[in-house]
Automatic annotation (TrEMBL):
This is YwpF-like family protein.
Length: 126
């Protein structure tokens, strides 16, 4: 396993046909490449408790969550992951959120998929 410092966390969702990026201010965080057969990563975000309701709702929804993260340095290019939330835990006056997921190798392919989904969703509403 390889462990890295999590420097940025952005949740990417679709709302009313638009892609919305929700930047989550980090207090601290880690990202672990488990180097297993399924290429799974574990992401831990240590954040303010004011975010607890938002993340508990995402946990209850049990949907896949797209993340963009920066690893090690804020100057690095963001990596995109398809994840699910394992747990939301109180730690003192703050919380941690544990995600598990896989890295999306090509940023262009995910942007194309998102665009296709948005277009398909838009067409289905007509």
């Amino acid at each position: 396993m390889k462990t890295f410092k999590l420097k940025m966390l952005t949740i990417i969702t679709q709302e009313n046909g638009n892609i919305v990026q929700n930047n989550i201010p980090l207090l601290n965080g880690l990202i672990i490449n488990r180097e297993d057969d399924t290429n799974r990563w574990l992401i831990e975000a240590y954040i303010k408790k004011t975010n607890e309701a938002y993340f508990n709702q995402l946990l209850e929804d049990k949907k896949e969550i797209m993340l963009q993260v920066k690893i090690t340095k804020e100057s690095n290019e963001p990596a995109t992951f398809i994840t699910s939330i394992l747990s939301v835990n109180e730690i003192g006056e703050n919380i941690n959120v544990l995600f598990t997921g896989t890295i999306v190798e090509r940023k262009e392919s995910i942007l194309k998929e998102l665009t296709d989904l948005l277009e398909a969703g838009y067409r289905d509403k007509d």
